[in-house]
Amino acid sequence: MVTCKETRAVIIALHTKGFTGKDIAASTIATIYRIIKNFKESGSIVVKKASGCPRKSSKCQDHLLKLIQLRDRCTTSTELAQEWQQAGVSASARTVRQRLLEDVLVSRRAAKKPLLSRKNIIDRLIFCKMYRDWTAEDWGNVVVSDESPFRLFGASGKKLFRRRQGERYHQSCVIPTVKHPETIHLRGCFSAKGVGSLTILPKNTAMNKEWRATFPNHPGTVW
User: Fold this and answer.
1) Which of 7, 157, 196, 198 has its CA 20 to 30 Å from the CA of residue 58?
2) How far apart are CA 140 and CA 192, in angstroms?
3) Please, are residues 96 and 84 in contact by the beta-carbon 8 Å criterion?
4) What's the confidence (pLDDT) of residue 124?
5) Could you please report the per-residue DSSP string of the chain?
6) What is the pLDDT of residues 164-195, one digit of tens each?
7) pLDDT in tens, 82-132
């Protein structure tokens, strides 16, 4: 609690005349004892200057920064600092990140989801409405099947290397690639009764209608 200079002077004057903290009812007891303690230590009623740098932005400016970030989630902290400067706040990208962390806005890698067209959305909605009344017993008669491709040469995902400057194309820091790598497709299935067998298709052969016809159809198979 911050008290004005006049109030602190009155409290000290009453204290020097023998009044206790409980007798001085101008403020809370904790504040009174703190003022008396500071006076005994420094001999002055002037409030000590707070340590550390003063905050560069107000709550209103912090809220503006949050709105700018929510308007475009991909904006970097450096770009935010430039936009914030137009609002009168001269701050570094690090300060921007600290303000966003106070609002629990942390930087994370974007999640990937399939792009749905209007037709995809309608089809999924129809599917959900069609089977929304199914019981656990009904779903127990369903076999879910899917297939996935696997490259035989080279990794399809990202791989990190630790290298020094100038070693970007060093043999130990590169992944060899080919234009048309050999690929195999694996098909598996599962149901309420357990996991089914895994089928390996010939190299460079994808699942199509002809291959699906070779697998026995279950009444409740979902491809």
Assistant:
1) 7
2) 5
3) yes
4) 94
5) ----HHHHHHHHHHHHTT--TTT--SS-HHHHHHHHHHHHHHS--SPPPPSSPPPSS-HHHHHHHHHHHHH-TT--HHHHHHHHHHTT----HHHHHHHHHHTT----PPP--PPPPHHHHHHHHHHHHHHTT--HHHHTT-EEEEEEEEESSS-SS-------TT-TT-GGG-----SS--EEEEEEEEETTEE---EEPPTT----HHHHHTSPPPTTEE-
6) 888 888 888 887 777 777 888 888 889 998 99
7) 988 888 888 899 999 999 999 888 888 888 888 889 999 999 999 999 999
CB atoms within 10 A of CB 76: 12
For tokens 């809370």, the residue is 28
